[in-house]
Amino acid sequence: MGTETSELSSLLRGISRPRAKRPGDGRPEATPAGASNPQKPAPKPAKVRIVGDGLSSTSKGGVETFTSLAENKSLRVPQWLARGAIACVGEGETLTEIQRHAIPAAIEGRDLIAVAPTGSGKTLAFLVPSVAIAVRAKKGEKTKALKRRRSSGASPSDGDGEDEVVAAGSNAVSKGPYAVLVSPTRELAAQTFRELRRLLSKTPKNKRLRALLLSNADSRLQDGGEDSGKREKVKRIRADIIVSTPPRLSQAIEAGLVRLSKTRMLILDEADKLFSDDKFLENVDAVMTACTHKRLRRCVYTATLPETAEELLRNVMQQPVRITVGERNAANSLVKQ
């Protein structure tokens, strides 16, 4: 993946981008005075198109509710995570179309290109599998750490406590992150982080995950480059899930404050915006290059995605599944979730 990934920025720069809309573009024409204005018919159910080989029946057929998601033995989604998702929705527990198919596909380990209208529930569609994978990865790391301690004759209780995952050296950094969520703006990153906290609100005390909004650490990252003591303090910050903008995460990687070698889930949210800015492309390139785990899942979520961009993405993804809800590049103002 390294060589192909390093070329992502230069490849995507050649993509033709749609011109900005002029005032009035896309607006319906005003109804002439005296003319009838019949009521619009009810919208048709959104079409779902799934393209990809080797999909499970669960991913193809979809999951109807968050409760049934937790009851599916092959997905191994914790009950508390399903309850957290229901808390995020606020009412009901029926999944939206993108959630029904994208959540199981991502949990099952598939690289994913998910295209769905704005307001169709994409945030939960990537937060739920991100948390599920982080829980699974952290449990696996803790098991390995306990085996190493036992084989070395150390007591299982040695270490920093329950959140200890691997032995920490003098230059220890985050034990994770196991999931990294990249958003194009600070506002969107903060919004995603708030939703993540709601999703984690039902987590049992003995299974809590450490989540970090990296944009909140601006001053610490800047100080870390000047003062070695402060930098060591930042290095010791542990996070299982990180939410960040591309520039901030790229800066943290370059400074050696964050390592993504254990990251199992990389989420690119609002990919159309990430790919429309050359600087973002360089940042995303650096992030993808830093994610070296052999079981990394790369998942892209967007409302619009040019075909040329998708073709190039497939060069740095492993047999990705493409899930499209509705018409390509359409918007949806009817779905509130």
TrEMBL record:
Source organism of the structure: Chloropicon roscoffensis
Entry similarity comment: Belongs to the DEAD box helicase family.
Chain spans, region Disordered: 1-54, 142-164
Its EC number(s): 3.6.4.13
Domain Helicase ATP-binding, residue spans: 103-323
GO molecular function: ATP binding; hydrolase activity; RNA binding; RNA helicase activity
Pfam family, one: DEAD
Keyword Cell membrane belongs to the record: no
Enzyme class: hydrolase
Keyword field contains Cell wall biogenesis/degradation: no
Keyword entries, A-Z: ATP-binding, Helicase, Hydrolase, Nucleotide-binding
Official protein name in the record: RNA helicase
Transmembrane segments: none
